[in-house]
């Protein structure tokens, strides 16, 4: 769709900053996210340029979180200079498309530390009862 140059919208749209981010869909207590490319200034519920993937954060029956990515289009938009939100950068790092995001390392470190503390507390608990 080409817009007339007099409208001014076409020029802005072509050169405006783009971002790859989540757009929340689904019901209350049942989120589902589309991974979309849109103008950076717009709200997540306004029209998008392109949907490049989807993400279901709730585990299914086999304890999997489902992700679908169109890596070819994501690489295209990144090549065009699109920015990424932090949650999308984390997800693409886990998927192997980008380097792992530092926040992912910190979350894993906190989870390991909490598990070690829980195991130590569990080990002390039987010793006290004996």
From TrEMBL:
Pfam families: Ribosomal_S16 (PF00886). It is found in: Mitochondrion. InterPro entries: Ribosomal_bS16, Ribosomal_bS16_dom_sf. GO terms for molecular function: structural constituent of ribosome. The keyword Cytoplasm does not apply. Keywords: Mitochondrion, Ribonucleoprotein, Ribosomal protein. It comes from the Eukaryota. GO terms for cellular component: mitochondrial inner membrane; mitochondrial small ribosomal subunit. One of its GO terms (biological process) is mitochondrial translation. The keyword Signal does not apply. Belongs to the bacterial ribosomal protein bS16 family. This is Small ribosomal subunit protein bS16m. It comes from Drosophila navojoa. The lineage of its organism: Eukaryota, Metazoa, Ecdysozoa, Arthropoda, Hexapoda.
């Amino acid at each position: 769709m080409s817009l007339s140059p007099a409208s001014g919208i076409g020029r802005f749209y072509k050169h405006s900053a783009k971002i790859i981010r989540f757009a929340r869909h689904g019901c209350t207590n049942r989120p589902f996210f589309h991974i979309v490319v849109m103008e950076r200034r717009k709200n997540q519920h306004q029209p998008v340029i392109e949907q490049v993937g989807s993400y279901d954060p709730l585990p299914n029956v086999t304890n999997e979180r489902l992700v679908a990515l169109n890596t070819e289009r994501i690489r295209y938009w990144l090549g065009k200079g699109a920015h990424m939100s932090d949650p999308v950068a984390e997800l693409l790092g886990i998927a192997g498309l980008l380097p792992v995001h530092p926040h992912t390392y910190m979350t894993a470190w906190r989870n390991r530390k909490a598990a070690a503390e829980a195991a130590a507390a569990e080990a002390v608990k039987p010793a006290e009862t004996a």
